[in-house]
C-alpha cells in the first residue's frame, strides 16, 4: 500500500487524523514507511505535537519494526506519557530491558500501561523475581492494576506464598471474582504451584465463567491425575450449554490416554470427527497419542498420513508413539524427516525425542540432539533443559546434567525434581539432599515426587530421624499425605540401617491392606544382611496371605530344610504350587549401533547372536582390566 498525493479535488484533506487512521490500517512495514515519508514531504509541522509520532511509533512496533519506533520516538518533540509507553513497549520488544528500565525509572508519570509493558518484558526474559517486585512496587505507588496486569504477573508466580499474595491483591481490587480473565489466570496459577483446592475454589466463586474457565480447571484436574473429575467437568460443561473447542477435547482425550479408557476415548474421537476438529493440530496430536496408548499405532500412522499439512504437535505425538512401542529408529527418522519438510522443532519436540533417547541409552543421538538444541537457541528453555538434564542423568553423566541445571534461571518444580531423582539414580544421595533443601529454601511448593526423592536420599544415607521429620513437614506444612510409594521408601530406609523389626511394625501400623511388594522388600533386605529370624517371620506372613510371589516360599523352604523340618518344607512347596506363585522375570537390553536387543536369560541366543556375544566379551574384558570383576566369577570356567 503506497501513498501518493491525490489529484482529485474531492479527496479529503490529508490531516493528522486521516494519517492516524491510515497508520492503524497498515499491514506491512513498507506501507508504514511510505506513509511516514509522505508525512515528512507534506509538512514537518505534523510532528510538532507528539500525536503522529506516537501513531507512527505504535504502527512500527505493531508491525515488528521496533528499532524504527525506538529511533522515531527518541527524537520526538514534546513527548508525553503515551510517547513514553510506546517507546517502552518498543524497547521491550527489541529485548533492550536495561534501556527500558532506564526509561521506566526516568518517566515523570507512570500508569498501568507503563507497568504492564515493563512486566511483560521481565516475564518474557524469565526475570520472574524482578517482575513480582515491580508488581509490588505498582501497588505501593497506588497504580491500579488491570486484568491484563494480573494475567502477566500470574505467569511469573512460582511459589505458593507469591500466588496467595497475588490472589489477595486481586480480591482487594475487586477483580478475583468479577473478572473472568483474572479468574482464569488465578486458576492456571494455582494449578501450576500445585494447590488444587485453591484453583477449584476460585472457579466456584467466579460470577461468570467461559470456555477458557472450564478448560483451565479441567487442565488442573488432569495434571493432578483426577481423571474422573475431568470427565465429570466435561459432562457438566456440555449440560450447561457451553460449546467445546479444540483445547477442551484435547484435555479429555489426554485424560482418556492417562487411564487407558478406550470407551470414552473412542466417544471423544467420534465427537472430534463430528465437529471437524481433525485439522486442528492440537486435537490431532491428542488423538494420535490416544491411539498409540491404546496399541493402535497403525491407526495413528494412517491419521498422520492423511493430514493435509504437517505440524510439530502431531509429529511429536507420533514420535512418542513410535518410541513407546520400542521403534526408536523410526522415531528418530520421523524427527529428521519433519525437519527436512520445514517443521522447525519446538521445545516439546526436543522433550519427546530426548526422553526416549535417554530411555534407550542412545548417547550419540542424544548429544547430537543437544547440539541441535544449542544451534536453534533452545538451551535456555526450561522444558528442553529438563529433558536434557533427565537424559544426561540416565546416561550417568551427572556433571553434564548439573551444568545444564545450573544455567537455567527460572527453574520450575519439574526441573528441580528431575535433578533430584537424577542424582539419586546415580547414587549421589548427599547432593540430592542439598537439592531438596534448596527447593524448600526457594519457596517452591513441593509435591509427592519431591517427597519420594527426599525419603529415598535419606534412606541411602541412613538418616532415619531426618526422613521421619520430612514426612511430618510435608503433612503439616504442605498438606501432602504419604502414599504407598512413600511408605516403601521409609521401609527401605529402616531396612538399610538394620531396623527390620521397626520396619515390620511400621508397615502393619500404617497400611490398612497387606502389601506384598513392601514385605518382599523387607524380606530381600533381611536375606542380604543375614537376619534369618526376621526373614522367617516376614516370609511366614507373606505365605499366610497367600502371596503369589515365589520369593517367600523359596526362603521359607530353605530355612525349614536347613533345620531338617522336611514336612514343613514340603508343605511350603505344595502351597507355592497351589497358589501358582511365579518367579518375576526381568529382562536386559543391549544397544549395538542403531539396534536395541531386549532379552531374558533364556532368550539371549535368539537376539543378536554373534554381535551380542562380541559386545559382552568386550565388556567383560574391560571389567577385568579395570579390576571390576565380581569376586565369585571364575574366569577359567567361562566359555
UniProtKB/TrEMBL annotation:
The keyword Manganese does not apply. PROSITE patterns: PPR. The lineage of its organism: Eukaryota, Viridiplantae, Streptophyta, Embryophyta, Tracheophyta. One of its GO terms (biological process) is RNA modification. This is Tetratricopeptide repeat (TPR)-like superfamily protein. The keyword Repeat applies. The gene is LOC103629962. Keywords: Repeat, Transit peptide. One of its GO terms (molecular function) is RNA binding. InterPro entries: PPR_At4g14850-like_plant, PPR_rpt, TPR-like_helical_dom_sf. Pfam families: PPR, PPR_2. It comes from Zea mays. PPR repeats lie at residues 80-110, 111-145, 311-345, 412-446.
Amino acid at each position: 500500500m503506497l501513498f501518493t498525493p491525490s489529484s482529485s479535488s474531492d479527496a479529503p484533506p490529508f490531516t493528522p487524523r486521516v494519517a492516524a487512521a491510515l497508520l492503524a490500517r497498515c499491514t506491512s512495514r513498507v506501507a508504514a514507511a511510505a506513509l511516514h515519508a509522505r508525512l515528512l514531504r507534506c509538512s514537518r509541522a505534523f510532528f510538532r505535537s507528539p500525536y503522529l509520532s506516537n501513531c507512527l511509533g505504535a504502527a512500527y512496533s505493531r508491525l515488528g519494526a521496533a528499532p524504527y519506533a525506538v529511533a522515531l520516538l527518541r527524537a520526538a518533540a514534546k513527548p508525553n506519557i503515551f510517547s513514553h509507553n510506546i517507546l517502552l513497549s518498543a524497547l521491550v520488544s527489541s529485548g533492550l530491558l536495561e534501556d527500558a528500565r532506564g526509561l521506566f525509572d526516568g518517566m515523570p508519570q507512570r500508569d498501568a500501561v507503563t507497568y504492564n509493558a515493563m512486566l511483560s518484558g521481565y516475564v518474557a526474559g524469565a526475570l520472574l523475581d524482578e517482575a513480582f517486585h515491580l508488581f509490588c512496587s505498582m501497588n505501593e505507588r497506588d497504580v491500579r492494576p488491570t486484568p491484563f496486569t494480573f494475567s502477566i504477573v500470574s505467569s511469573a508466580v512460582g511459589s505458593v506464598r507469591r500466588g496467595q499474595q497475588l490472589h489477595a491483591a486481586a480480591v482487594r481490587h475487586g477483580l478475583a471474582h468479577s473478572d473472568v480473565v483474572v479468574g482464569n489466570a488465578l486458576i492456571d496459577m494455582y494449578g501450576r504451584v500445585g494447590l488444587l483446592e485453591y484453583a477449584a475454589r476460585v472457579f466456584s466463586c467466579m460470577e461468570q465463567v467461559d470456555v477458557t474457565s472450564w478448560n483451565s480447571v479441567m487442565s488442573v484436574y488432569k495434571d493432578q491425575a483426577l481423571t474422573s473429575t475431568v470427565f465429570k467437568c466435561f459432562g457438566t460443561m456440555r449440560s450447561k450449554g457451553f460449546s467445546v473447542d479444540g483445547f477442551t477435547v484435547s484435555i479429555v482425550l489426554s485424560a482418556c490416554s492417562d487411564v487407558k479408557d478406550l470407551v470414552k476415548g473412542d466417544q471423544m474421537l467420534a465427537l472430534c470427527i463430528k465437529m471437524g476438529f481433525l485439522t486442528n493440530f492440537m486435537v490431532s496430536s491428542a488423538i494420535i497419542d490416544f491411539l498409540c496408548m491404546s496399541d493402535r499405532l497403525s491407526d495413528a500412522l494412517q491419521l498422520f498420513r492423511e493430514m493435509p499439512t504437517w505440524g510439530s504437535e502431531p509429529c511429536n505425538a507420533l514420535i512418542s508413539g513410535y518410541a513407546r512401542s520400542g521403534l526408536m529408529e523410526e522415531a528418530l527418522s520421523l524427527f529428521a524427516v519433519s525437519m527436512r519438510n520445514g517443521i522447525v522443532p519446538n521445545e516439546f519436540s526436543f522433550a519427546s525425542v530426548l526422553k526416549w533417547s535417554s530411555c534407550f541409552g542412545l548417547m550419540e543421538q542424544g548429544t547430537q540432539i543437544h547440539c541441535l538444541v544449542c544451534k536453534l537457541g533452545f538451551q535456555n528453555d526450561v522444558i528442553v533443559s529438563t529433558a536434557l538434564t533427565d537424559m544426561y542423568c540416565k546416561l550417568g553423566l551427572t556433571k553434564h546434567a548439573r551444568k545444564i541445571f545450573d544455567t537455567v534461571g527460572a527453574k520450575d518444580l519439574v526441573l528441580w525434581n528431575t535433578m533430584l531423582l537424577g542424582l539419586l539414580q546415580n547414587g549421589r544421595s548427599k547432593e540430592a539432599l542439598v537439592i531438596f533443601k534448596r527447593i524448600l529454601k526457594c519457596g517452591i511448593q513441593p509435591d509427592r515426587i519431591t517427597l519420594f526423592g527426599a525419603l529415598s536420599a535419606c534412606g541411602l544415607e541412613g538418616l532415619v530421624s531426618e526422613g521421619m521429620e520430612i514426612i511430618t513437614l510435608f503433612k503439616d506444612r504442605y498438606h501432602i499425605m504419604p502414599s504407598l510409594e512413600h511408605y516403601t521408601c521409609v521401609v527401605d530406609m529402616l531396612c538399610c540401617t538394620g531396623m527390620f523389626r521397626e520396619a515390620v511394625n511400621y508397615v502393619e501400623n500404617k497400611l490398612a491392606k497387606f502389601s506384598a511388594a513392601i514385605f518382599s522388600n523387607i524380606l530381600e533386605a533381611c536375606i542380604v544382611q543375614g537376619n534369618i529370624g526376621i526373614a522367617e517371620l516376614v516370609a511366614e506372613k507373606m505365605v499366610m496371605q497367600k502371596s503369589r510371589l515365589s520369593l517367600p516360599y523359596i526362603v521359607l523352604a530353605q530355612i525349614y530344610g536347613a533345620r531338617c523340618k522336611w514336612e514343613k518344607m514340603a508343605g511350603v512347596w505344595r502351597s507355592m504350587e497351589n497358589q501358582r506363585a511365579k518367579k518375576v522375570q526381568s529382562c536386559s537390553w543391549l544397544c549395538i549401533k542403531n539396534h536395541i536387543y531386549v532379552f531374558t536369560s533364556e532368550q539371549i541366543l535368539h537376539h543378536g547372536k554373534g554381535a551380542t556375544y562380541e559386545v559382552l566379551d568386550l565388556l567383560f574384558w574391560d571389567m577385568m582390566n579395570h579390576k571390576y570383576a565380581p569376586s565369585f566369577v571364575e574366569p577359567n570356567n567361562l566359555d
